[in-house]
Amino acid sequence: MKLPKLLLFFLAFSIFSCAKKEETTSFKFAVWTTADAKKSDADYTKEFKKYKDGGIDEVLINTTTDPKLLKRLVPLATKEGLKVHAWIMAMNRPNDSVALQHPDWYQVSKEGKSCFDNRPYVDYYQWLCPTRKESREHVLHLVEELAKVEGIESVHLDYIRFPDIFLPISLLPKYNLVQDVELPQFDFCYCDECVKAFEKIHHKNPKESHNTSIDMEWKNFRLNAIKAVVDDACKIAHKHNKQLTAAVFPYPEMADHMVLQRWDKWNIDEVYPMIYHSFYNEEIDWVGYATKQGVADLEDKKTKINTGIYIPGLKNDKELKQAILEAKENGAVGVSFFDGNALSESNLKTIKETKASLK
C-alpha cells in the first residue's frame, strides 16, 4: 500500500524532529582527573570502568601536557566507553621546563615582581604573559601537540586567564587577606611587552595610571590578550578536527571581575564554569543561578555551558543530586565533577541514579 506524499512528509519530519530533540536534550556527565605515567594500564582500565559504571560519559585528563601519555590513555578510556578531553594548564605553567629557560616570558605584577620567582598566593602560580609573542606561541604549540592526538574530543584549557585579582571569599582567611580593593601584588601583567603594546594603542603607560582598577582601556587590553590566545587555540583545535573547551570562573561578569576572563566574548565550543558554591559561601541553588547567568550571556552564541561541580564542597548525596538538577534546569548541557579522586562509591551511585531519572 502506498502512503500519500503528505503523510510521508510528516513522518519524515517527525523522525527528524525526534532525532534533533534527542541531540539537544542529551545531558553529559564528565569528570576531571590527573594522570600519572607510573600507573599501569590495568589500573587505568579499572579507574575508567569505575567512572563508566557510575554514569560518567567523559573524562578530562591532565597529562601535564604530555601527548605521549595522552596517546596511551585515549584507547584505554575509549574501550570503556568514555570520551576523552585533553586538559591543559594554559597560561599558568608550573615547572614548565621550556618556559623556565626564559624568565622574560613570565607575567609581572604592578609591584614589578615576576611570577618567575615571586609567585602570588601559591608556589605553583607561574603565569606566562599572553601578550609576549614567544610565551603565547609556546602555549599554542602545546595546544597543537595535544590537538594532534587521535581520538580526543577537545583540547580543554584551564588557567586561561590572569592570576586572581580577587580570591573567592571563603579562601581569603586561608591567606590571611582582605581584598576590598585591587592589591598591586596580585595585579598583572605589567611586563615590558604588555606596557609597550598598550602604549602603542592608547598612548599612555598603565604604570602611571592614577587608578588602574577603573582604567577600562587597560582592563580591556588584558581581556583581549586572553581572548586572542583562546581564539587562536580554537583555530588550531578545529584545524585538527577537535573542539576547544575551557574551565572558567562561574559566570562572565564574575570572571571578568576576579581574574580578567570574559569568556562570553571568546570563540570557543564549550565552557565549563567552575560553579563551586562553597568557595563563595553560597547555597546549592547558586549552582542554578550562576549557570543561568552564563547561559543568558551566551544566548546569541553557539558556545555551550557544562557546569563544574566541586565534590568536596557538597555535604551529602542529596546536595549532589540537587546540584546536577540545578545545572540541567538552568540550561547546562552537562555537568563535570572535580575531581575523580573525590568521587565516592555513594557519589557514583547517586550520579547514575540521577542520570537515569533524566531520561
UniProtKB/TrEMBL annotation:
DUF4015 domain boundaries: 71-284
Highest taxon, organism lineage: Bacteria
Keyword entries, A-Z: Signal
PROSITE patterns membership: PROKAR_LIPOPROTEIN
Secretion signal, residue range per the UniProt entry: 1-21
One Pfam family per UniProt: DUF4015
Protein name: DUF4015 domain-containing protein
Phylogenetic lineage: Bacteria, Pseudomonadati, Bacteroidota, Flavobacteriia, Flavobacteriales
